[in-house]
Design goal:
Layout: H1 6-35, H2 44-47, H3 60-70, E1 74-76, E2 83-85, H4 87-106, E3 110-111, E4 117-119, H5 120-124, H6 127-133, E5 138-143, E6 146-154, H7 159-169, E7 178-187, E8 201-211, H8 214-235, E9 242-245, E10 257-264, E11 270-278, H9 282-287, E12 290-292, E13 298-300, E14 302-309, H10 311-320, E15 337-341, H11 346-365, E16 370-372, H12 379-388, E17 393-397, H13 399-404, E18 406-411, E19 419-422, H14 426-451, E20 453-455, H15 459-467, E21 474-479, H16 483-493, E22 496-501, E23 521-526
Parallel strand pairs: 3-7, 15-16, 15-17, 20-21
Antiparallel strand pairs: 1-2, 4-6, 5-6, 7-8, 8-14, 9-10, 9-22, 10-11, 11-14, 12-13, 17-18, 18-19, 21-23, 22-23
Helix pairs in contact: 1-3, 4-8
The protein binds zinc ion (ZN).
Zinc ion binds near residues 479 and 482.
Length: about 525
């Protein structure tokens, strides 16, 4: 299928030759600079015109940065630790937002918006909260040409300012529950940053609800974890997750209980992919969110908060990416199918163009996010370009296809599985194939997690598992519930308790994997991002 005009071919290979060297020379320089989070502006714009080499997945952090920058998801910003989300990355985020927002609204929540700035005194009101966030807070002390009477915090999260307002909105039990969510940016001053995974400013949604009873707050916290977060991440992003309870030392600053969904990345490390907190009455007490109950007594309310952020884009990259780059789950892919026209002579180009237009229009009308690539480049260059960006389906249309009224479909998940499809069947087959690819990505991620989940005989084997970089994964074991024991495990192996899965074994607990005392919970241990 590699037909192309002589002239284009030549021009293509010249470009390739010249820049092959240039690109690989730039590779190391750029990646090094970017790995440090330094070197503000880059030459990505020119570099992206050429076929690009990715770092080997054995060097996973380099590979990750290569994918982020070369697939043009994000770029460095002149402000250290911040990132610029480029159109391809932002289109992905918009599709993720849509899937999440639908679920948030379908479960009875409404969106609203709070200010970026929070009075400094608000943050100080909840003791655990301020202790947890103070080191990461950015303060505005001067504005409008003068010192501010009270410094303003750039929100690291909005519990405090929202609590302040909720106190004024809630009066009676009839006002409850309050079920609100906001889409916003937040700032946490991070020392070591990595695009999407840990950035000083990031985008997210934060839900904040108020309830009449502890039970209602707990039900809400778990409902969000299950019906909103797990459902969204598994169905839309095709990433299997383990829902569970965080240990005391890993919970949110100021929460009664924190639940999370945990996913395994391609290097066997864990990524906390969403959290849901039962805040108990801590924030209600600090901000005086009370209500007159049916028995005419004034009572303190119970609150929750929950969030998913652009961090999950990092999760998507690492859960599905391969040696050729990204693999986008079709449901959130900015481009679901790319048409690559192939021609040799002008006359052929016309026939090919007619079929490309017809197929593109039919797919678009059916709601498929499709694009055709008419750039003056060799087909091989284009295949590589779109594979790196993870486009789920490539559609090849050459002169013979035009003559026969057919196209060739190639799934990103298995490029040897080409299939020729008659043009009248393209829409139906593309839609079916997108669904198959979505399922394949999920199945592969789940199989990988299962193959990298270990139950160990003793602590020596636990340590050996955490030291084995090539086969790194999750260890499932009994834990005594003691924070000191947990801290020792972390110090010795770098593994943390990711969560105590909601699905606990039915068997009676065995001894703690580290100290041998009676176990109280079945835990997932892993190194984590
Ligand atoms: Zn122990």
């Amino acid at each position: 299928m590699a037909e192309q005009s002589e002239n284009t071919e030549q021009a293509g290979s010249k470009k390739q030759g010249k820049t092959g060297a240039k690109a690989s020379g730039q590779n190391s320089g750029n990646a090094m600079a970017k790995a440090d989070g330094q070197g503000a502006t880059s030459s990505q714009a020119t570099e992206s015109r050429f076929v690009q080499e990715l770092a080997d997945q054995d060097d996973y952090s380099r590979w990750y940065l290569d994918v982020v920058y070369k697939a043009e998801l994000a770029d460095l910003s002149p402000v250290r630790g911040c990132m610029v989300i480029r159109p391809y990355g932002y289109a992905l985020w918009e599709n993720m937002q849509r899937g999440l927002d639908e679920r948030i609204k379908a479960t009875g929540h409404e969106n609203l918006y709070f200010p970026l700035f929070i009075p400094y005194s608000f943050l100080m009101r909840e003791a655990e909260h301020v202790a947890g966030f103070a080191p990461e807070v950015a303060l505005v002390t001067r504005a409008g040409g003068e010192e501010l009477e009270e410094p303003l915090v750039v929100r690291p999260t909005s519990e405090t300012i929202i609590g302040h307002m909720y106190a004024q909105w809630v009066h009676s039990y009839r006002d409850l529950p309050l079920l609100y969510n906001q889409w916003a940016n937040v700032v946490r001053w991070e020392k070591r940053t990595r695009p999407f995974l840990r950035t000083t400013e990031f985008l997210w949604q934060e839900g904040h609800t108020v309830h009449r009873t502890e039970e209602e707050a707990e039900t809400e916290t778990l409902m969000i974890l299950d019906k909103v977060y797990q459902d969204f991440v598994e169905r839309e992003l095709a990433i299997p997750v383990i829902p569970g309870l965080k240990s005391e030392s890993e919970k949110f600053a100021g929460a009664l209980r924190t639940y999370s969904i945990e996913a395994m990345m391609g290097d066997g490390k864990a990524l906390q992919s969403g959290t849901s907190h039962n805040l108990g009455q801590n924030f209600a007490r600090s901000f005086d969110i009370g209500f007159l109950d049916a028995d005419n007594e004034r009572k303190l309310a119970w609150t929750t908060s929950w969030g998913i952020s652009t961090r999950l884009i990092g999760g998507l990259i690492m859960a599905h990416g391969d040696a050729s780059g990204l693999r986008m789950p079709p449901r959130v892919a900015p481009i679901q199918a790319v048409i690559v026209p192939i021609w040799r002579k002008d006359a052929e180009r016309e026939a090919v163009a007619a079929l490309v237009s017809e197929v593109e229009a039919a797919l678009r009308a059916a709601g498929v996010r499709v694009r055709s690539d008419w750039r003056e480049e060799r087909p091989g260059f284009k295949y590589n370009h779109w594979e790196l960006r993870g486009v789920p389906i490539r559609i090849e249309i050459g002169p013979r296809d035009a003559a026969n009224g057919q196209v060739v479909l190639v799934p990103r998940t298995d490029r040897t599985a080409k299939e020729t499809v008659e043009k009248g069947a393209v829409v139906a087959r593309t839609q079916a194939l997108l669904a198959e690819i979505q399922q394949t990505l999920y199945d592969q991620a789940l199989a990988f997690r299962q193959s990298r989940t270990y139950q160990v005989a003793d602590y020596a084997e636990f340590q050996a598992r955490m030291a084995d970089r090539e086969h790194l994964g999750f260890v499932e074991a009994w834990w005594c519930g003691d924070a000191t024991c947990e801290a020792e495990i972390k110090a010795e192996t770098q593994a943390t308790i990711r969560c105590l899965p909601l699905a606990q074994p039915e068997a009676a607990p065995g001894p703690c994997v580290h100290c041998g005392r009676p176990g109280v919970a079945w835990a997932i241990f892993a190194k984590a991002y």
